[in-house]
Automatic annotation (TrEMBL):
Keywords: Glycoprotein, Neurogenesis, Repeat, Secreted, Signal. It comes from the Eukaryota. Secretory protein that plays a role in various cellular processes. Acts as a chemorepellent acting on gonadotropin-releasing hormone (GnRH) expressing neurons regulating their migration to the hypothalamus. Also promotes neuron migration, growth and survival as well as neurite outgrowth and is involved in the development of the olfactory system. May also act through the regulation of growth factors activity and downstream signaling. Also regulates extracellular matrix assembly and cell adhesiveness. It is found in: Secreted. The lineage of its organism: Eukaryota, Metazoa, Chordata, Craniata, Vertebrata. One of its GO terms (molecular function) is heparin binding. Residues 39-58 are annotated as: Disordered. This is Protein NDNF. It comes from Anas zonorhyncha.
Length: 513
């Protein structure tokens, strides 16, 4: 209902020793309210028919009298008046909002034991924070006895915000809804349904509701979907689960969490004791220091990032960064004293030469692949002639000649460069069902010949060509078994001893010759 200034409600309790329960729920502003009772007038009927006078006539006769105050409250908590034995009489509920136009909910009944419209809270109504991360918080709570014992349909609604805890779901709905949405055509209230009016002898037509000033709030309970969030406030109903992980939160931020048990039969809700928690800080990136001319191994988690720092001790004209991405492509960014100098994707071995600057400091950011973890080798140096990584051709595939296959040998070829390098070729017998997925697992280009068995080594040789078009070599691998599959690997080894593996090649000897 909507309270524009003050509102009075009247209801009749016809018999003494009647149970009575009244619940008032303020939605978006504190309320002052009191409940009082006046004796019913003696029957004034001359015929002595025994029929009571209509409620309106009774009200007119005694509303000017001062009733006996039973209960009063001022604040924004959900408050109750409960009596197991109330006297007969005309009851008056006065509500006043001193701050602003506001909304509230009222529920009154003379059969509280059988109605039980509000879900019960467990003996421990607190929300526990069971897990805390940088962007996630896991909450757990004990089930409502209304669900676990009485087997009534209960769903739980979680409210997340950055400002404060809420005392009722009604207050949440008021915050989520726009001001205009609240003011709707007068209709019987959500809480005083025609069934409720019948308990107290009120007529059930719409006009009776209008006379008493009941306005239907736009907020509704028991939705299965999330409400449309307003500023930093989100509500989601999750069914009858007792544990839930809130995700997509901001690191190092305090959030308030409220839990409401909603009886989907009655659309009434009860608030658990709210809690709050601060998400963990963003993990501070540890910066790896690069030493001039020394190769550094770097591991990056999937979609992760690593920061490297290079601070040359001597003055320098140029800086060379060599990056060997062992698996998938990675992104590299280089900043000098905060200024972005380079941003590129790197696959295989790449070398970047940048102009130097006295006392400059370089920050290198490496961002990993979306496909999986990344392994890299990084070298930074101010001495251009000191290259640890071997040069590679653009095409690092191994070509197999099908027509030269025999039952005991295969012939392959690969490209070289203009630099004289050492090449070693290795073979490994594999099953016939060896597939591309298994092959992909062995594509780490940074694993050198030292990780291979001696029995797998075929040969090593040096070669290069000043004419890049002729920098190609062939090799026949003999001593193989008929009809068998083999995985071939070629390693190129640089002057500093670091190796780079070409793309593996799967070959198969002929079964019949």
């Amino acid at each position: 209902a909507c309270l524009l200034d003050n509102v009075k409600y009247f209801f009749v309790v016809e018999e003494d020793n009647t149970p009575l329960a009244v619940t008032v729920t303020p939605c978006d502003a504190p309320l002052e309210w009191k409940l009082s009772v006046q004796e019913l007038p003696e029957e004034a009927s001359g015929e002595g028919s025994g029929e009571p006078e209509p409620l309106e006539q009774q009200k007119q006769q005694i509303t000017n009298e001062e009733g006996t105050e039973l209960f009063s409250y001022k604040g924004n908590d959900v408050e109750y008046f409960v009596s197991s034995s109330s006297p007969s009489g005309l009851y008056q509920l006065d509500l006043l909002s001193t701050e602003k136009d506001t909304h509230f909910k009222v529920y009154a009944t003379t059969t509280p034991e059988s109605d039980q419209p509000y879900p019960e809270l467990p003996y421990d109504p607190r929300i526990d924070v069971t897990s805390l991360g940088r962007t996630t918080v896991t909450l757990a709570w004990k089930p409502s006895p209304t669900a676990s014992l009485l087997k009534q349909p209960i769903q739980y609604c979680i409210v997340i915000n950055k400002e404060h805890n809420f005392k009722s779901l009604c207050a949440v709905e008021a915050k989520l809804s726009s001001d205009d949405a609240f003011m709707m055509a007068p209709k019987p209230g959500l809480d005083f349904s025609p069934f409720d009016f019948a308990h107290f002898g009120f007529p059930t037509d719409n006009n009776a509701g209008k006379e008493r000033g009941f306005l239907k709030s736009s907020s509704k309970f028991g939705r299965q979907t999330s409400s449309k969030p307003r500023v930093d406030l989100h509500k989601v109903c999750i069914g009858n689960k007792n544990i839930f992980t809130v995700s997509d939160l901001k690191p190092d931020t305090q959030y308030y969490f409220d839990m409401f048990a909603v009886n989907t039969n009655t659309n009434m809700s009860t608030a658990y004791v709210g809690t709050f928690a601060r998400t963990k800080e963003e993990a501070k990136q540890k910066t790896v220091e690069l030493k001039d001319g020394k190769v550094t191994d770097v591991f990056i988690k999937r979609k992760g990032a690593k920061f490297l720092r290079f601070a040359p001790v001597s003055s320098h004209q140029k800086v060379t960064f060599s990056v060997h991405s062992c698996l998938d492509a990675v992104q590299i960014q280089v900043r000098r004293d905060g200024k972005l100098l380079l941003s590129q994707n790197v696959e295989g071995v790449r070398q970047f030469q940048l102009r130097g600057k006295a006392k400059a400091k370089y920050l290198i950011r490496l961002k990993g692949s979306k496909k999986g973890a990344s392994v890299l080798k990084v070298l930074a140096t101010t001495r251009p002639n000191k290259q640890s990584f071997p040069s590679l051709p653009e095409d690092t595939r191994i070509k197999a000649f099908d027509k030269l296959r025999t039952c005991s040998s295969v012939t392959v070829a690969w490209l070289g460069t203009q630099e004289r390098n050492k090449f070693c070729i290795y073979k490994k017998e594999v099953d016939d069902n060896y597939n591309e997925e298994q092959k992909k697992r062995e594509q780490n280009q940074c694993l050198g010949p030292d990780t291979r068995k001696k029995s797998e080594k075929v040969l090593c040789k040096y070669f290069h060509s000043q004419n890049i078009q002729k920098a190609v070599t062939t090799e026949t691998i003999r001593g193989l078994q008929p009809g068998k599959s083999y995985l071939l690997d070629v390693y190129v080894i640089g002057h500093g001893g670091h190796s780079v593996k070409y793309q593996s090649k799967l070959v198969k000897t002929r079964k019949f010759c």
